[in-house]
Amino acid sequence: MKKSLFAFMMLVALSLVLAACGGGGGDAASGSIGEATDYKIVGIEPGAGVMKAAQNAIDEYGLDNWTLVESSSAAMGAELTKAYENKEPIIVTGWTPHWKFAKFDLKYLEDPKGVFGEEETIHTLVRKGLQDDQPSAYTVLDQFEWTSDDMAEVMVAVEEGANPEEAAAKWIEENSDKVEPWKEGAGKVDGEKISLAYVAWDSEIASTNVVAKVLESIGYEVETVQLDAAPMFAAVAQGDVDGMVAAWLPFTHADNYEEYGDQVEDLGENLKGAKIGLVVPTYVDIDSIEDLKSK
């Protein structure tokens, strides 16, 4: 009996030790989140506004031993998916809307210094003169607006394997009540060409494909052009493309808007409630960027 009791007590003690050490979430107080992630923040394309803000956060919060890893939106999503499935700690540059918030339980790290700014809006920008040259396209672009939940439906469908054009067409078919007001007052055209630029973010792939499909429905032949952020703004300003629905303001694309804002026409918000920051799964036991400081 004594041996059985002793074995039981040892088993309980071992379970408590494993519980204290396990979970994969990391402990900010002991610095294990840094060790578990090799002090790396998984980023996206260099030059993106969220990357600039993330590097500023590293500087402002004194995270001298942390590195911001340049990759791509797709690569960041793949790394997050792998870590999440294995309940491993990971820190990524994040933004809302994005499919990852619909698929995973995630949280933004608190940003008491305000490095990432407040909530943003996504704006539609077009080249000057578009209203005169392509009034029907201008009308659609001017009236286009939707919500984060709308965008998430398209993004999740694409992330789960749907072709972006097919996902956009399906969303339009199922949401005609939201789409019809965008076309109000826009006359039909006969094969006129128009071009839209976008950055290769899941959010902008979704919105650009939706708008392109709507323009096609009134007779336009639409070309979509993938560019990095700065060339995207320059292309609209110089008239190389007709417009975009992908300007994150006032923070993410602040530098681009300062350089090119007076050379384009800003048609205003097409989505409210956008946000950028550092993101972790909810099982990661930290709440603030300040928790990343080495102790």
TrEMBL record:
Gene Ontology MF terms: amine transmembrane transporter activity; carnitine transmembrane transporter activity
Gene Ontology cellular component terms for the protein in this record: ATP-binding cassette (ABC) transporter complex
InterPro entries from the UniProt entry: ABC_Gly_betaine_transp_sub-bd
Signal sequence annotation: 1-19
GO process annotations (BP): choline transport; glycine betaine transport
Residue ranges occupied by any ABC-type glycine betaine transport system substrate-binding domain in the UniProt entry: 34-174, 193-293
Main location: membrane
Keywords assigned: Cell membrane, Membrane, Signal, Transport
Location relative to the cell: Cell membrane
SUPFAM superfamilies reported for this sequence: Periplasmic binding protein-like II
Protein name: Glycine/betaine ABC transporter
Organism name: Pueribacillus theae
